[in-house]
Structure formats: structure tokens, C-alpha cells
């Protein structure tokens, strides 16, 4: 598909919310956004309900029973980093789709988009400090503020730039170790003490002697339980503030900005190629599934199996027959697991995108498809509602269930939130033309009170 001329105005995407109210809707994109929004709660609920040290250790939250391991494994295999990748792809795609709508309507778009991103950044920072440290809105807003000019580029440039941006975190994950190893191999020494420690840790993993490959006491989570399970809202807010720098500033520089920004550029390319509007044909979606799942699933399965084996070893639940060989193999896989998951997640997300677009088109009139589409249109409201529900369930100023539930029980909470949000979005969409948080955000960006009732803006959506 032809890209907009360089002089064409660029319109903003709705990073987690619906498209601009004057723009025509693409129901399939709303469906994918709805699935991604519900799916991201599968991983976020771990951060809400469990100590961070238990994130990849199912044995510490429910034991090694088949059901509990499966509950952990399904989340890691199909959802971990894939849902945030889907939302990032849609972020970039929405920018291009709305740019076309703005150009056709003759509307200015850059200034409104920058205002919208600025307000989203403030909302995200407030969310991270006052409610939950794991907020992603501020990353989307920052990417939108800095990367929107890329929408003028042709498809191949967008794919190339997006891929390069996405691969930057591999340097932070593995670059220092590679440099230290090269320095030592050329007789220059490993470098500073931190580099020497990286080399010692890597050698221990490869030799199978690392503590990560042997029975160890469970991590001390008493402080996490004090803050999240028994603390007040003020205790939680103080911890959110403490985590803001390592999670959002350092983590953003090392991982989040490059990940979301790279996928945003690739999403722009997919939109320009007509993939999201079915103009590229079913064959393009089949290629997305084939390449995405064909290359990404083996990597993701390997990482999931590696994490499980390591947890079994640390929990003394498994003693391999060929002890040293098995531990060395698992150690080598642990050494590269972060990079493998990073690459695999993006590929699987592309496979998910192809599959979901195919199913949304095939079953476009099915009740489930319409329900998911409504969640996609109210996704900002649903995302923030998930925080409210989860903190009231797990934190000390609510029911205080933090650290008490198994992975199977967490799936019960996931299912309950899914049903509640699907039902609530259906009820809301029949009465209102825009979600409550979307309305507040866009009214702030426009600096005027926008209408939100369906009668004020056309017939209600069914």
C-alpha cells in the first residue's frame, strides 16, 4: 500500500485505547487489542499477587503438581512478553491508520497527538507511583512522543529500524559478558570487578556448579509480604516510589523503550503493508503465523523448559541421572535465556497477530468476537480497572492475599477479571460511545469536555 506523502499530517495512535472518534473502526484490530489487554493480566497478576522472586519459580507458589506447573507454563509460554508485544505492534499500526484518516478528513494531527501522549505519560507515572509499579503506559507515551515521525518512512525502512531497535536490549542482556570474555581471551583481563563477577557466574553455570542449579533455601520474601500483604496504601506507595527508578528509568533504558519502540515501528510497517486491513490477503497472515510460531515457539518452549528444570533443581524436586552433564546443559540454557525469550516473544507475538486477525475475520459476527472488540475499544479503562481489582484483592489495604495463592488459584482470579471486564464492556458500550478513562484522557488532551453518551455521537454499538 502507498505510504502517505512526506508532507501529509501524522495522526496519533491510541496506544491502549480506541481509535479517534471520527476515524472509522477496524473491528479486527479492536479484537486483537482486546485479547492482548486481557492477556497481559495473565502476567501482571504474578506481580500483583506474588513476590517478584517467585515469578519464574512455580514450586514456591503451589508446588510441583501437574496442574500448578501447567498453570505457570501456559502463562510463560503463550503470554509472557507476547501481550505487551502485541499492544506495541498495535500502537504503531494505529499511528499509521489514524494518519490516513486525518489526511482524508483534512484534520491537523501532530499537536493533538503530542498532547495526548503527554497526558498519557502523566497518567502512566501517576499509575506507577500511586497504584502499581509495573505500569506500561508511561513507556508507550514516551515511545509515542519520540518515535511518531517514523510513520513517514517506507515499509522496508520501518522493518529494518524496528528490528534494530528491538535488538538493542540484547546488548544490555549479554554484551558486558561478551566484552569481558573477549578482553580476557586477548590477555587484557576481564576488566572491573563486576565484569570479573559476570565471568565467574557464567563459568559456574557452564560447569553446572552454580547455586542456580542446586538445592537452595527459598528466597527471603518477608519484606515483600510486610509491604504488600500487610502494609497500608502508604507503604505500597513508598515501595512504588523506590521501584520507579530501577523499573522505569533503568529498565526503560535497558529494555522497555527499545522493545516497545522497535515493535511500534514494525507495527507501522504492517499497517502500511495493509496486513491489518486484510488488503495483504490471507496468505500474508499465514506467513506471519508460519514464521512467527515456527521460529518463536521453539525458543519460547526452550526457555520455559529451562526455567522449570532450574526451579526443580533449586527446589530439590529433581536429581538428574547424569548430574554434571544435565546441570551444565541447563546452565548453558540459563545463560542465554533472557535473549532467547526476548527474540522468541516478538516472533510468537507476530504469530498471535496473524492468528487473531484470521479468526476475527472468520468469526467477525460471533458474540465472543464482538465482546472482545468492545474490550479493545475500552482498553485503557480495562487496564486501569485491572490494577484496582488486583490491588484490592492482593494488597494489605484490601483482602491481603498477596503471597498466598498458587498459580492455579491465580488463574481463577484471571478468569474472574476476564468475565467481569467482558460483561462490563458489553454493558458500557451499549450506553456510551467511549470508555470513562478514554473520555477523561481525550478531554484533557483536547482541553474541553467531549461528549461520551452514544446518543450524543451516534447510535450505540451493539
Task: Walk me through this protein's architecture.
With 462 residues, this protein is mostly helical. The protein has one domain (27-457). Helices cover 70% and strands 0% of the residues. The protein contains 16 helices and no strands. It has helices spanning 27-49, 66-79, 82-105, 110-130, 137-147, 155-185, 193-207, 222-229, 233-272, 282-314, 323-362, 367-377, 379-394, 407-429, 436-446, 454-457. Helix 6 packs across helix 7 (193-207) and helix 10 runs antiparallel to helix 11. The model is unreliable at 1-25 and 456-462 (pLDDT under 50).
Descriptive terms for the model:
single chain; disordered N terminus; mainly alpha; 16 helices; about 0% strand; about 70% helix; about 450 residues
Question: Quick gist of this model?
Answer:
The protein is mostly helical and 462 residues long. It contains 16 helices and no strands.
Reconstruct the topology from this structure.
Blueprint (H helix, E strand, L loop, with lengths): L26 H23 L16 H14 L2 H24 L4 H21 L6 H11 L7 H31 L7 H15 L14 H8 L3 H40 L9 H33 L8 H40 L4 H11 L1 H16 L12 H23 L6 H11 L7 H4 L5
Helix pairs in contact: 1-3, 1-11, 1-12, 1-13, 1-14, 2-10, 3-9, 3-11, 4-5, 4-15, 5-9, 6-7, 6-9, 6-11, 7-11, 10-11, 12-14, 13-14
